[in-house]
Amino acid sequence: MRIRDFVPSDAQQLVEILKANQQYGHPEIDGPEAMSKVHQCRAAEFLVVEEDYRVVGFIRGVYDGSRAIIHIASVHPDYQRRGIGRALVREIAERFKQRGASSLAVTVPGELGFWKKVGFRQTTRIMFAYPIDDILG
Ligand SMILES: CC(C)(COP(=O)(O)OP(=O)(O)OC[C@H]1O[C@@H](n2cnc3c(N)ncnc32)[C@H](O)[C@@H]1OP(=O)(O)O)[C@@H](O)C(=O)NCCC(=O)NCCS
Q1: From residue 97, how far is each of 38, 45, 66, 90 by CA, in Å?
Q2: Fewest C-beta atoms under 10 Å: which of 17, 48, 61, 118?
Q3: Ligand 1 atom 12: residue of nearest CA
Q4: Which of 114, 117, 122, 128 has most ligand 1 atoms within 8 Å of CB, for mutation?
Q5: Helix %, strand %, coil % for the chain, to 5?
Q6: Which long-range CB contacts under 8 A does 4-10 form with residues at least 24 apart?
């Protein structure tokens, strides 16, 4: 297993992983163009994992100068339950810690089981406005 920074040529493989996990409902926030923007954002950490010489998963999140948050993680179904998701969470946590973060949150649309297993506690509920114009009127 090798974890490294995302490069734009990974985008199509990540789209296939998201589709395989039924996580590709919003291409405008998770598709190749959005991935390129995240890649260019200095606040973001965007990591991919390779196994068997192919990209099989990724994780991405941001550090705001104090706190960090993970927004999405995905491991190809053929490679789940082998410790890859845990390794991605550990690596992004290490990166955020090195940048100065003392806390790490995660936005979880689905099951909590994995996140509890890797060390998160459920505290608050996160509320969501998408599209952002729901707030702007
Ligand atoms: C959630 C996900 C990223 C976990 O990746 P993974 O590589 O399968 O996880 P790991 O193998 O590292 O699992 C770490 C631990 O969590 C457990 N675990 C994994 N998925 C779990 C689940 N859905 N429910 C409960 N426990 C789970 C594993 O059994 C393992 O426990 P152990 O250390 O006691 O053996 C992956 O299953 C996935 O991409 N799922 C679909 C998309 C998704 O839900 N993403 C998260 C929301 S953004």
Answers
A1: 19, 12, 10, 10
A2: 118
A3: 83
A4: 114
A5: 40, 25, 35
A6: 4/47, 4/48, 4/50, 5/46, 5/47, 5/48, 6/35, 6/38, 6/39, 6/46, 6/47, 6/48, 6/58, 6/60, 7/39, 8/32, 8/35, 8/36, 8/39, 10/35, 10/48, 10/55, 10/58
pLDDT level of residue 35 (50, 70, 90 thresholds): very high
Going from the Cα of 82 to the center of ligand 1, the distance in angstroms, rounded, reads 9
- Nearest Cα residue to atom 20 of ligand 1: 114
User: 59: closest CA among 91, 103, 33, 20?
Assistant: 91
**What's the one-letter identity of residue 60?**
R
Q: Quick check: 87 pLDDT over 80?
A: yes
Domains of the chain (ranges plus CATH)? Answer: 2-136 (3.40.630.30)
Atom of ligand 1 nearest to the CA of 71: 48
Minimum CA distance residue for ligand 1 atom 21: 114
Query: Which residues have C-beta within 8 Å of that of residue 66, sequence separation ≥ 6?
Result: 100, 101, 102
